[in-house]
Amino acid sequence: MRKRIIDGHAHIFPQKIAEKAVASIGGFYDLEMRAGRGTGEALLESGGKIGTERYLVCSTATHPGQVQSINDFILEETRKHPEFVGFATLHPEMEGLEEEFGRILERGYAGIKLHPDFQQFAIDDEQAFPIYRMAAETGLFILFHTGDARYEFSSPRKLAAVTEKFPSLFCIAAHFGGYQRWQEAYDCYESPRIYMDTSSALFRLTEEEALRFFEKFGWDHFFWGTDFPMWKHEEELARFEALPLGREAQEAILAGNFARVILKEPDGVLNL
């Protein structure tokens, strides 16, 4: 039987700015953008090589004025490509925050993506609390970039503090909970409503480090992801499959958990 795969973390950009956006992200992290182009079509081409069935797609508003246009683009892409599961963007400094949150709910986005380092706000800044409050009240997931060692904006400890203040908030702490700050993430996360994804982590984590995360937090709290266009689907799948996980855990992380938690399919079966 063919293995089911969902990419739980991918970025896409409009054709006219995709090349510039990909180069900017690569420069920010000083990493080669392995997948190259960052359009929706390029994502489908890369994921298709391993049989990916669904993709969480998002893009980050680095300025408040970009929020609505980015959300319009993500919605358009999800309508064009039913394989896409859209996460909207918000910015703590934007005007009309509650109105835009209402649009997010009406349009049926699956969640919100926040990137504190790009957006330059601390996760535990009170200015962001209205976003967390509305998400917690409605059950909408927030996908956080977490853990860059160069900045305090995305510190795992700050996310842990937010989940203490908003205990009903569901969130995804990207990159095994803390890109470059994995020990901090391992030590401080306690909320059972914190999920994590595997993106942009397995190229640095050792097998032992990855396995201890699964052991402590439970493999049912992880989604497989590529951070496209940072990495190619084939190479990220190879890294994941190299881990000594049982079949049940592997299948859950690759697709079942996302199907159950984000797509709200109780049995984890994909309905395409």
Any descriptors?
alpha/beta, 272 residues, eight-stranded parallel sheet, single chain
CATH topology: TIM Barrel
Q: What would you call the structural class?
A: alpha/beta
State the CATH class.
Alpha Beta
Instruction: Give, in spatial order, the strands making up the sheet with the most strands.
Output: 1-2-3-4-5-6-7-8
Textual characterization of the structure:
It is globular and about 50 Å long. An eight-stranded parallel sheet has the order 1-2-3-4-5-6-7-8. With 272 residues, the protein is an alpha/beta fold. Helix content is 42%, strand content 12%. The chain has helices at 15-29, 40-48, 67-80, 97-107, 116-119, 129-138, 156-165, 182-188, 207-217, 233-241, 247-261, and strands spanning 6-11, 54-58, 84-89, 111-114, 141-144, 171-173, 194-197, 222-223. α4 links the parallel β3 (84-89) and β4. It has one domain: Metal-dependent hydrolases (TIM Barrel, Alpha-Beta Barrel).
